[in-house]
Specification:
InterPro entries: Myo-inos-1-P_Synthase (IPR002587), Myo-inos-1-P_Synthase_GAPDH (IPR013021), NAD(P)-bd_dom_sf (IPR036291). By secondary structure, this protein is an alpha/beta fold. It is 40% helix and 14% strand. It has helices at 4-14, 31-44, 54-57, 73-76, 97-104, 109-114, 116-120, 148-163, 190-198, 206-216, 233-241, 255-268, 285-290, 293-311, 317-320, 365-385, 387-390, 417-431; strands at 22-27, 85-91, 125-126, 168-173, 221-223, 246-247, 272-282, 324-331, 340-348, 354-362. A hairpin with a 5-residue loop joins strand 9 and strand 10. It is globular. 46% of the residues are buried. It binds nicotinamide-adenine-dinucleotide.
Length: 447
């Protein structure tokens, strides 16, 4: 039997090192993307800290509690260095990223001035866009082509050009929320999907064109929006075939982040929940897009699934069967990106006596989302370099980052933030050959 050290050495050696430039390709260069890119540059220059990023600031316990081994995650697994990130992307609005960041109004003017030339040096490429899928936006710089296959191949050409300037690539969708879409026949196999591209099948959305192009090029794809995108058998098939990891969907940033902390707390204490009313006011472009009922439906479905999965009402009908769950998002321009989310939670305890909990989260949407996007970029690149992960398709261990995590067919997704965190850290331990941590701990008390 190999010693733990030999296992660690062997596992670590199987991961391709993170050498050279990591190209980050972002369809949708609005509030989240500009806050991410400006943030990475500010951090690289020592002007700010990567607060909120687990990959940069999180630690991971290794071995027993008595061993006192808790390195930073970025020192434990071979992640790309922030200095090696190179950015490009696509958007329907012309101009450079300094203009886009000014429009987004997330970061202070003083902070933007410090990195202005860097942001001005990045200009989004023309987008594959169709207003049918995002009703509230009008495309200014968009690709034209004879069919969807042509558009997707133009994206592949953009990728090919970027490949000449970078060593590895990752794509992350930070584009607007598309209209609600359910799985259609064209989504069921790769062959049907590729036929649908040529035939302009309406069930193939712009986000799917980017995803297909990335996966065809062997590039991992993460989905920060609630769109169906890679959550279809056709693209899951392509992901496995090309060893190009996928994950999604919908960054778990504000209200749902808190919901997936509170709900497991009620559940483990066997407290009942009669109702959970969540509402938000939001005034950025995302809020404007979500003001359209068809895009809102996509977001609503993503936000609603959470409680059902955590509470398992089929196992606990007395506590959760009649739970009334409502989610609202109201577009309210004066608040810009500084969203306010309220939750009213009606719970009940011993002998059925009712109680209430109110949450008022005055958050900043893109400030919460940017570090999640950074972690996903770095971990998806790690997955692509790791033999035991890259062929799996869906990277369920990254469900920590998503409101509506993708999972294997027939397997329900884990929504509890703490289970997700354990899954993420145990996956990192596993790929590095370290023992998994079960928190059993009996051996501390033996002879
Ligand atoms: N900020 C958060 O906390 C958060 C949380 C979860 C999910 N999200 C999702 O992340 C996405 C981005 O959010 P945001 O606040 O940056 O929105 P945003 O409106 O500021 O940026 C989205 C950008 O995508 C562009 N776009 C739309 N369709 C496109 C296409 N086909 N190709 C290229 N570009 C396209 C738009 O022009 C816009 O600039 C949204 O879908 C949002 O729902 C955000």
């Amino acid at each position: 039997m190999s010693t733990p050290n030999a296992a660690v050495t062997e596992a670590a050696a199987s991961i391709t090192p993170a050498q050279g430039k990591l190209g980050v390709m972002i369809p949708g260069m609005g509030a989240v993307a500009t806050t991410l890119i400006a943030g990475v540059e500010a951090i690289r220059r020592g002007l700010a800290l990567p607060i909120g990023s687990t990959s940069q600031m999180g630690t991971i316990r290794l071995g027993k509690r008595t061993e006192a081994r808790s390195p930073l995650i970025k020192d434990f697994v071979p992640l790309a260095s922030l200095d090696d990130l190179v950015f490009t992307g696509w958007d329907i609005f012309g101009g450079n990223l300094y203009d886009a960041a000014k429009t987004a109004q997330v970061l202070d003017n003083d902070q933007l001035q410090q990195i202005r030339p860097f942001l001005e040096s990045i200009e989004p490429l023309p987008a594959a866009f169709n207003q049918h899928y995002v009703k509230r936006l009008e495309g200014k710089t968009v690709k034209t082509g004879k069919n969807k296959c042509d558009l997707a191949n133009q994206i592949r050409n953009d990728i090919a050009e970027f490949k000449t300037r970078t060593d590895r690539q990752v794509m992350i969708w930070c584009g607007s929320t598309e209209i609600y879409m359910e799985q259609a026949p064209v989504h069921q196999t790769l062959a049907a999907f590729e036929k649908g591209l040529v035939e302009d099948d309406p069930a193939i959305t712009p986000s799917m064109l980017y995803a297909w192009a990335a996966l065809k090029e062997g590039i991992p794809f993460a989905n920060g929006a609630p769109n169906l995108t890679v959550d279809i058998p056709a693209l899951q098939e392509l992901s496995k075939k090309m060893n190009a990891p996928i994950c999604g969907k919908d960054f778990k940033t504000g209200q749902t982040f808190i919901k997936t902390v509170l709900a497991p707390a009620f559940k483990v204490r066997n407290l009942g929940v009669a109702g959970w009313y969540s509402t938000n006011i939001l005034g950025n472009r995302d809020g404007e897009v979500l003001d359209d009922p068809e895009s809102f439906k996509t977001k609503e479905v993503s936000k609603l699934g959470v409680l059902e999965h955590i509470f398992q009402p089929e196992l606990h009908p007395e506590l959760y069967k009649d739970l009334y769950h409502k989610v609202r998002i109201n577009y309210y321009p004066p608040r810009g990106d500084n969203k306010e989310g309220w939750d009213n939670i009606d719970i009940f305890g011993w002998l059925g006596y009712p109680m209430q909990l109110k949450v008022d989260f005055l958050c900043r949407d893109s400030i919460l989302a940017a570090p999640l996007a950074l972690d996903l970029i770095l971990f998806m690149d790690l997955a692509a370099r790791t033999p035991s992960l890259r062929g799996l398709g869906i990277q369920e261990w990254l469900s920590f980052y998503f409101k509506d995590p993708d999972s294997a067919p027939g397997v329900y997704p884990e929504h509890d933030l703490f289970i997700q965190n354990m899954k993420l850290k145990n996956t990192l331990r596993h790929i590095m050959g370290e023992s998994l941590i079960t928190h059993l701990g009996l051996d501390y008390y033996g002879e």
